[in-house]
Design a protein that fits this description.
There is one protein chain. The chain is mainly alpha-helical. It contains 17 helices and 8 strands.
């Protein structure tokens, strides 16, 4: 009710003060074109070509202006006034012809209205093509004030249409970001994860083991299901033989927008540094929050500890090229030169100390150390069945740095505190 009241007030204001809205429209249009031109220049277009592409993407200014007027003013009152003015003028000149023409127009409009209602009711409206099982749940638009995309639920679309405010809002009706907004999964995260885990450990794993012997029909079916779960295109998955290389998911998911998804935390999205690369070359999560680590450390060391050695603190250094990966597993006769597998070490420790308890924590949105990879590895821990109950798992709706999500920070704090309390032998 309140939204309807605001809509009426806004329309009356637009009718009484059309000049202000026209000025706002011109300013918004100019800003939109400038942003689009700047984006084009960043992609390597010349200034003239960027300007042309921006105008094509924006569409007809006249049509947008008319849509704006229809959204904010009282177009029916304007139309009525204009029709009345023209009708009186014609009536003074030729009253007989005017009456005949009015009657004919009334009949034609009535017939057209009946036909339109029939077609609309029984043949339905045109909708964007969707894949089997998909449903539109939201529309996406650009929030100019916040400089970010926003999503509007399907139930609010009709209400949104009555409260359009800008050119950007109008453009929002033209874009359906199907990869992020079209839902083909359970609303509950845990139910969805259980479904995906089953697929990964049954149909998907079996398909990978079959290799080149996998029938084409089954290959297509697996690709379609994998696309539904990951958001990657079916064509891409078929080209990669159903295998997703490390870093490829982050690079490919939003490749059409030249954006990269975070590795340590997929909730973070940033500009792609190399659009033609095969895998991601940067991590938007690190770019977004690494400076906070440096600032917090420098402030704590210098302000609280009063330690000022005059050296530079770096959040990360390149050590992997010279890292010594040698590890001698329990019972081995020599160190292995490979990525260390410490599962045998943990298994020996748990066997030697049956009271040893293990707590596994992780973030669902971590691609660097995926949550299910940890659970999968622990399933292969060589320990007796009686020791399996010594292991517990806690996962959070966050990334590698679980504490970067405040509700998860509180949850992991409480869970670890309870774990310590239960296991310290009180």
């Amino acid at each position: 009710m309140l939204a309807f009241f605001h809509t009426i007030v806004a329309r009356i204001r637009g009718f009484l003060r059309p000049g202000d809205l026209e000025l706002d429209f011109e300013q918004e249009t100019a800003t939109h074109l400038e942003m689009a031109e700047a984006d084009g220049r960043r992609r390597g277009l010349s200034a003239e070509e960027a300007r042309r592409v921006a105008r094509v993407q924006l569409g007809g200014i006249t049509q947008l202006r008319e849509s704006r007027r229809a959204a904010w003013g009282l177009p029916w009152l304007d139309g009525f006034a204009l029709d009345a003015k023209l009708g009186l003028r014609m009536l003074r000149r030729s009253w007989g012809l005017t009456l005949a023409g009015g009657l004919a127009m009334t009949i034609v409009i009535t017939i057209a209205a009946v036909v339109f209602v029939f077609l609309d009711e029984f043949m339905g409206r045109t909708a964007p093509p969707l894949d089997q099982g998909e449903r539109v749940v939201a529309l996406q638009s650009w929030d100019a004030a916040a400089h970010r995309r926003r999503e509007t639920p399907r139930r609010d679309i009709d209400r949104w249409g009555a409260t359009l405010r800008s050119v950007e809002d109008l453009g929002g009706f033209q874009t359906i970001e199907r990869r992020l907004i079209v839902a083909n999964r359970p609303a509950d995260l845990q139910s969805f994860l259980a479904q995906v885990e089953t697929f990964a450990t049954t149909d998907y794993a079996l398909a990978l083991m079959k290799g080149n012997e996998l029938p084409e029909a089954e290959r297509q079916r697996i690709a379609q299901q994998l696309s539904a779960y990951t958001g990657l295109s079916i064509a891409y998955l078929l080209k990669t033989n159903l295998r997703i290389e490390y870093g490829a998911f982050q690079k490919e998911l939003l490749a059409d927008r030249e954006e990269t998804v975070g590795t340590l935390d997929t909730r973070f999205i940033g500009a792609t540094l190399d659009p033609i690369a095969k895998v991601a070359s940067n991590d938007p999560q690190s770019s977004a929050i690494s400076s906070a680590y440096v600032a917090a450390y420098n402030d704590y060391v210098r302000a609280s500890l009063r330690y000022e050695p005059g050296i530079e603190f770096k959040s990360g250094i390149s050590i992997y090229d010279s890292w010594d990966y040698k590890h001698k597993p329990p019972g081995g006769d020599r160190a292995l030169i490979a990525l260390p597998n410490v599962l045998p070490d943990l298994a020996v420790a748990m066997k030697q100390n049956p009271d040893l308890k293990v707590m596994v924590n992780g973030g669902y949105y971590d691609v660097s150390t995926p949550y299910f990879a940890g659970r999968f590895e622990m399933r292969h821990l060589p320990i007796p069945d009686r020791l399996k109950s010594n292991i517990e798992y806690r996962y959070y709706e966050s990334g590698h740095m679980v504490y970067a999500h405040l509700p998860s920070l509180k949850a992991i704090h409480d869970n670890v505190a309870q774990f310590i309390g239960r296991t310290e032998g009180r």
